[in-house]
Amino acid sequence: MSEDGLSRTEARGLRQAREIEGHLGWLDSITGAALAVLAVASGIYTYLGVSSLLDDTGALSVFAAMAYSVAVSVGIFVFWSYMMRLLPAMRSMASVLGLLASMALGSVAIIAMSSWLNAAALAGAAAVEQHLATTVQNYQQALERANTIAVSAQGLQRDVARVRSSFTDLAEQEASGDLSGFAGRGAVFRLLRQKADELAALEAQIAAQEPAVAAAFADGNAILSRMRALTVEPGPVEARSVTFSEEAVRLANVITQLRQLSVAPLVVRAAQDLSASVVLPQLDGTSADTRAGQQATIDSVLGVLVQRAETLRLAAEQVMAMEAPVETIYTPISTADAVILYAGNFIPSWAGAIAIDLLPAVLVFIVMVAQAAVRAGREPAAAEDQMTLAELRAALHAMRDVELALNRVEEADDEGDARRAAPRPGGVTVVSRGPAE
């Protein structure tokens, strides 16, 4: 550092500070207009978002949406104007942190009152369509699950047929005398035929449900096809949502019908009745030995009956234990709610909606860095060393003006003293004296 001038480093810092100040001066002339454009753009999208939330389309609703959007535009412009002017000018860390906290709080408020509505305007229709598509997927899963349970229940027909066939075979063996040792259609034969007939009736009931299950599943798929078409059909999404809601109600009824068509509960009750409700025929043997043989065979048949009934019951309960379809209910949703609900699917829209409101924060940080560089370049040098040639000329002109003014005052004072000391007529000289001390 030289004694009568600036070092090279200080001189370079001053030149940089003056260059940055020149750029800031030019940029300041367009900053206000840029903030106004961003605020107005945000207000427009906010108006569209608010309009989508209002059910009424009358003049009052339009006025309310416009008032809200204007308030948002003014609030954004004023807030960022405050930040642009005040935050770069802060010197102490406490004041900088205080304004940064205020800016963070204001940014959260802007997102709450504007950005989510901007996102609703940008991607609201697409978000509602996403809601429709997700609902279709949920209904499809529920339909397929209900059909799987119903078809699994229909599969119990094979188990029932196998048990019925075993009792029929036992009855034929009894008729030929291979079971109890006494040929004929006596008490044991009638018991076996009784249970075989009960199982045949149950088998017929299960078989009768199969066309109804297939028809219900076909109806459900047809409704799903119409619902999928509504999700991608051109036109206003609000009108499509109404039709979609009607189809959703029909599909819910079909799913409920499929759940009711499951024959698993019927098989469980039939299996319980199979062993519990047994009408024992009267022993018709002609001798005591024959009747004893019939009784022994009947006891064995009852034991087998209990085992087969338990097998059927367990098979039916396995079907009943299958996970039931998730109950799906379509709920109409607004564009703003849809954007929030499916925010992860519309990250670019959310980013654009937030950026249009918070982009001035980047400008604030830029001005902060620039002002800090200006201060770093100016503070090491004395005030007189920071003056530019134009400033020095202005200072010299100001000094000359001050000197001229002082000279005029002194000349006026001298002239006044001379007038007061001038001789009066009659040879009397009047000397002006100051006030007595």
Automatic annotation (TrEMBL):
**Can the keyword Transmembrane helix be found in this entry's annotation?**
yes
Task: Give the transmembrane ranges.
Answer: 24-48, 60-82, 94-117, 350-370
Q: Which domain of life is it from?
A: Bacteria
Region of interest (Disordered), residue spans: 410-437
Q: Keywords in UniProt for this one?
A: Membrane, Transmembrane, Transmembrane helix
Q: What is this protein called?
A: Uncharacterized protein
Please name the source species.
Wenxinia marina DSM 24838
